[in-house]
Specification:
By secondary structure, this protein is α/β, with parallel strands linked by helices. It is 42% helix and 15% strand. The structure holds farnesyl diphosphate.
């Protein structure tokens, strides 16, 4: 194992944590600042949390950066977020690579601009050899949209004769999802006091544990993250079975 791949870890830590990073707008507004100020503060938190993952034994981190529904926000906010994503990728690329982070994007790229798509491709390529921690950024992602796109491709494969309808089962759909190479999330966290899933990893989180916490995303610290990971480690997951 390369030196950089060693993790200390918390016993029983979730292998995959998925986070709905909510509350940027309220955080900014409470300071009398525009909503984008909150998104910029939120972006900084992502790096900080990714960096703590190896020490805690969390191998996969997936963050919800922009949903298929977020296009309904004002043009100023959407354009500001897209510009933030471009800047974030450009600015963070080397550090992410050097820290052993493998970055992937999930979501539908069709509505994203060509420059952003090119940067996403470059970052995926740049970090493709990394294995220390896997960061997945959900961008123009919606779970229902993902499932619909997967079923469409599955139907096309059936029509071409590359897939038999008889053979379709749960694992087939899993293989057509954007998340095909990721394990299912063990823990899903939503910040900002809202107890909703908002179309995030619905299929994949069927047996996940959930944590809804009041902290607004820009106030989410490594210590809070560690506390959630340790709480998870104490939980008893049965996946529908009864304990022997
Ligand atoms: C939800 O808060 C947050 C978003 C829609 C954007 C999330 C984006 C980031 C954290 C920054 C960029 C991330 C990366 C990976 C570069 P909200 O705006 O709905 O907050 P509110 O509920 O208080 O209005």
């Amino acid at each position: 194992m390369p030196e950089g791949d060693k993790t200390t870890g918390c016993e029983g830590a979730p292998r995959h944590v998925a986070i709905i990073m909510d509350g940027n707008g309220r955080w900014a507004q409470s300071r009398g600042r525009p909503r984008l100020f909150g998104h910029h503060a939120g972006a900084k938190r992502v790096r900080e949390i990714v960096e703590t993952c190896p020490d805690l034994g969390v191998k996969y981190l997936t963050v919800f950066a922009f949903s298929t529904e977020n296009w309904k926000r004002t043009q100023t906010e959407v354009a500001g977020l897209m510009s933030l994503f471009r800047r974030y990728i450009t600015k963070e690329a080397r550090a992410l690579r050097d820290e052993g982070v493998r970055v992937r994007f999930i979501g539908d790229r069709v509505r994203l601009d060509a420059k952003l798509i090119a940067l996403m491709d470059e970052l995926e390529l740049l970090t493709q050899e990394n294995t220390r921690v896997h960061l997945t950024i959900a961008l123009n992602y919606g779970s229902r949209d993902e499932v619909a796109r997967a079923i469409k491709r599955m139907a096309q494969d059936v029509a071409r004769g590359d897939l038999s309808a008889e053979d379709v089962d749960e694992s087939t759909l899993t293989r057509y999802l954007d998340t095909r190479v990721l394990p299912d999330p063990d823990l899903v966290v939503r910040t900002s006091g809202e107890a909703r899933i908002s179309n995030f990893l619905l299929w994949q989180s069927a047996y996940a544990e959930y944590e809804f916490i009041d902290t607004l995303w820009p106030d989410f610290t490594a210590d809070i993250f560690e506390g959630l990971v340790r709480d998870y480690a104490r939980r008893d997951r049965r996946f529908g079975a009864v304990k022997a």
